[in-house]
Amino acid sequence: MAPKQGGRAAETTLTIVNVGYRSTNFWVISAGRARVLVDIGWPGSMGLMRATLQQMDVPLGEIRYTLATHYHIDHAGLGEEFKRAGVPLLVMDLQVDAIPRMKTWVKPQDGYVEITATGNVVISCAESRPLLARLGIAGEILPTPGHSDDSVSLLLDSGAAFTGDLTHPARVALEDPAVVAASWRLLRERGATHIYPGHGPAQPIERYLAS
Ligand SMILES: [Zn+2]
Fold first, then answer.
1. For 162-208, what is each residue's pLDDT tens digit?
2. Residue 38 alpha carbon to ligand 1 centre in Å
3. Residue 27 C-alpha to ligand 1 middle, in angstroms?
4. How far does the centroid of ligand 1 lie from the alpha carbon of residue 96, in Å?
5. Which protein residues have a CB closer than 5 Å to ligand 1 (ion)?
6. Most CB atoms within 10 A, among 64, 89, 112, 133?
7. 14-210: what fold?
8. Domain ranges for the chain
9. Model confidence pLDDT, tens digit, residues 15-52
């Protein structure tokens, strides 16, 4: 029998592993054997994704959900293939309309398998905390528009924030600077301390924003 720890459930230690390739980060957050993949590969790269997961000791069968920070091809390209492999796609309700637009950005030779509605688990951001808690992951999914309207971030209670392509405030081009600033403000208010972006290294938020 496991020793009791003052009557409280032991807090699960989360691990974060990057299984990215071709200059995009794909993050696996694990609570023991319950895992979530944040950003879902390039189109046509399922073989490379499987090989990378194996290299990084992440059994595909232990991934409970995939989540795209937004529906651009380098972040959500394998959503349908993962579903076929038994991993449901976790979709925020604010992202639903962006999914069909994916196919307009790919060329036939990219090998994109169109994401269908079948097998998607659609929830609101407010429902994300209890869903993640069932996996042993303390955190929430927040709307963080700016780079695109369908952009979300996964923020763990540890302070780790998976921000996808959320625009750096100093590198705003076509984006609405007020929308970008509001997303960063929300992340800070909710306790983000460490940024795990879609491209480039993970860094403390102060260093990331100063870079
Ligand atoms: Zn993007």
1. 999 999 999 999 999 999 999 999 999 999 999 999 999 999 999 99
2. 14
3. 16
4. 16
5. 72, 165
6. 89
7. Metallo-beta-lactamase; Chain A (3.60.15)
8. 14-210
9. 999 999 999 999 999 999 999 999 999 999 999 999 99
